[in-house]
């Protein structure tokens, strides 16, 4: 069973200091590569999860892939619904604005790409679609006047996309569900925004699409996923989902997978308040944001940084609330640092 710890002032300060030890290249699960063909080789030679037996291709997911306590159709329906909102991110530029002690400062000016994962935010604004002239020299329509439209906001980690220059070099791939890449839609990054809660690692990557109809399509997928997530009975969330962490990701920059493991520690008291109390607190600006550390055994690989981590808590079952951050190479555990 999972072990839960209250996060108080003393604990929070300690964890905030120890957090920095994981922000090193060997812990951050970003895949560095120069050619897309490198990624298949990385997958085949993976030493963290040889064979990737516990990372299930998303198009092959069945109830049998869930631990028995999670083996409910409503849980699988929710995972199936939000998985199209999980994206592969490829960043082609490394900003000189990164600090010298940043683990990726050494690749500034080099042709080295970073591969990671992200997930669409819970809000997609279909009433205020912005229009911009396309300035992408590599666009297949380059040479003709045409427009791109925004925004679709994608959560990921700041060590994936550091600033606007990196954001504008980013390619964001939707629906990369099978190795043959059938149905993949690629959006371009526009800019990046910090998390308003004070989380210094999670960021919103704003994306542009050539297809104005793509934004309402993603909006519909978001709304459908939110409905299915809210429909999971609280008895299942409290008794089953709070002991597990589910991750949908792009390991090694390859096609989408599902993995699940135990939620070992969640440094926050389980919320036993009634619905009205939770609603008022979540919609009040008076509550403070504190560092939350989640530790889980869910299999992940380089390329999984930024992937959604889903548990059973009010601030954990939503796919957009928590991003996979790092791996502890000593214990073999995975970690997510968030402020909620």
Q: Could you explain how this protein is built, in words?
A:
The chain is of the alpha+beta class and about 350 residues long. The protein has one domain: Thrombin, subunit H, CATH 2.40.10. It is about 20% helix and about 25% strand. It contains 7 helices and 16 strands. The strands form 2 sheets. Strands 1, 3, 11, 12, 13, 14, 15 and 16 form an 8-stranded mixed β-sheet that branches. Strands 4-5-7-10-9-8 form a 6-stranded antiparallel beta barrel. A hairpin with a 6-residue loop joins strand 15 and strand 16. Helix 3 packs antiparallel against helix 5. It starts with a strand and ends with a strand.
Summarize this entry quickly.
This protein is an alpha+beta fold and about 350 residues long. The chain is about 20% helix and about 25% strand. It has a single domain (about 20-340), classed as Thrombin, subunit H (Beta Barrel), CATH 2.40.10.
Highlighted features:
27% strand, 8-stranded mixed beta sheet, Peptidase_S1_PA, Thrombin, subunit H, alpha+beta, disordered N terminus, Peptidase S1 domain-containing protein, 340 residues
């Amino acid at each position: 069973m999972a072990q839960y710890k209250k996060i108080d002032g003393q604990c929070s300060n300690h964890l905030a200091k120890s957090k920095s030890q994981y922000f090193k290249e060997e812990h951050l699960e970003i895949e560095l590569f120069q050619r897309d063909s490198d990624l298949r080789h990385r997958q085949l030679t993976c030493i963290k999860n040889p064979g990737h037996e516990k990372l299930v291709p998303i198009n092959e997911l069945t109830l049998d892939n869930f631990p028995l306590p999670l083996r409910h159709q409503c849980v699988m329906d929710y995972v199936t619904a939000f998985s199209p909102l999980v994206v592969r991110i490829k960043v082609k530029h490394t900003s000189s604005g990164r600090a010298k002690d940043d683990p990726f400062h050494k690749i500034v000016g080099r042709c080295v790409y970073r591969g990671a994962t992200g997930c669409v935010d819970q809000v997609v604004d279909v009433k205020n679609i912005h229009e911009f002239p396309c300035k992408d020299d590599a666009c297949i329509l380059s040479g003709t006047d045409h427009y791109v439209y925004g925004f679709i906001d994608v959560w990921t980690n700041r060590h994936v996309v550091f600033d606007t220059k990196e954001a504008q070099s980013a390619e964001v791939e939707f629906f990369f569900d099978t190795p043959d890449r059938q149905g993949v839609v690629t959006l371009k990054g526009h800019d990046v925004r910090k998390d308003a809660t004070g989380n210094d690692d999670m960021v919103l990557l704003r994306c542009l699409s050539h297809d104005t109809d793509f934004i309402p399509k993603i909006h519909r997928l978001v709304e459908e996923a939110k409905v299915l997530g809210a429909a999971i009975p609280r008895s299942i969330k409290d008794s089953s989902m709070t002991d597990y962490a589910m991750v949908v990701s792009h390991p090694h920059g390859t096609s989408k997978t599902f993995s699940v493991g135990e939620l070992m520690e969640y440094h926050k008291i389980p919320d036993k308040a009634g619905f009205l109390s939770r609603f008022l607190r979540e919609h009040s600006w008076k509550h403070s944001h504190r560092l939350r550390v989640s530790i889980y055994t869910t299999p992940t690989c380089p390329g999984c940084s930024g992937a959604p981590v889903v548990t059973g808590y009010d601030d954990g079952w939503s796919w957009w609330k928590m991003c996979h951050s790092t791996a502890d190479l000593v214990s073999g555990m995975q970690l997510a640092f968030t402020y909620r």
